[in-house]
Amino acid sequence: MGRQSLFLPDILPCPGPGRCEFHTSIFGGSDDPEAVPEVYSCPRCQEEHPTTIDPPSGSPSPTCPSRLESLPTEILQDIGERVPMPYRALLAFSSRTLHHKLGKRAFDVPTRDRLLLSDLLSRNMPAYATCWDCRTLRPYYSALAWPLLKIHRKERGIPSSIYGVSEFLMTKALAYCDSQRKTGNCFMSLLTCAGTYIKPWADNDKSYAEDAGFSKDDLQMGLQITYEASGRISTKHTADRLVTHVQYRINLPRPWTSFAVAQRFAILRDFYLCPHVYASKVQYRDPHDPTFPADSSIKHWLPHEGPVPEATLTCSKCSAEFRSTVEDDKGHQSITFDVWSESNRTCNDGLTETTFCQGTSYSNGLLGNSKIRGMFESAPAI
């Protein structure tokens, strides 16, 4: 696979090591492109797509110039002056002859048009997408091109439980929808995830987990957390936005109300919902507790008090919004965590890129609290 090609399993947003069960059923479990099927059947659009996207093969150079290329340089330059930017630059890119005759002025693209030019060029460059901040085309495989890359969990210290959509994947998904789903791969199927994340127990938590009633397999393998994730395109703003939703579910051996605070922390410890918020933060806190809103104010909710109230939270450092719900379905106890997030043209990890361009820091006040969830629910399912 060439450096200009895009190997789709490289940019999957699946939580945990490896691919989720949904994407494993499509691409298999190998990281070797030679061991992955050349085409896959997309469950979204019911069509087959290549697993590796290659740039369009150029047609062989003609032995004689075209009628357009044969025009005198002065006439071509006059034509170029009448073609609006950034299409003048695209005309110069169409052949070496036109590139030479139109000259450097064809590439004097105003700042306001550079993003459009980069987006148009990226249509034929599958491994590249446009950095929102510096308007530069960057490849997804570059070690320094964050936030366009796939999620680099180890390098950035991003927990493996997070469903991570990179700006690169977001850009490709939006471009696919902008083209009315007529060109390129169905990137929306890459946004769909479903599987089980195994959260290791902290050594000090195993005794609490055992007392809480978890099985020996759970204690040895880790806590099983099932999840389902999807993305939608919101068109209610000046620019289309990708909004995502992931729901995590933990099946419990006993009612949540029967667990001591230490047992609840053992279950939720180190389970991150975004790079900044772990699940134990998204719990009902008794406003009458004198320590409210500290973590220690997780109330020991008793069964006779009725259902545990729903808890919500908004991250102050990224676009994520959270909700936790305790459920009792015919004796089957579980706790679920919903995470809604918007692709805000940054890596969404609270860090700024300082190598090539200055990333824009995210302010949750941009859309206000509870806006992301509303955007997702009002956008049509794809």
Automatic annotation (TrEMBL):
It comes from Trematosphaeria pertusa. This is F-box domain-containing protein. It comes from the Eukaryota. Residues 47-66 are annotated as: Disordered.
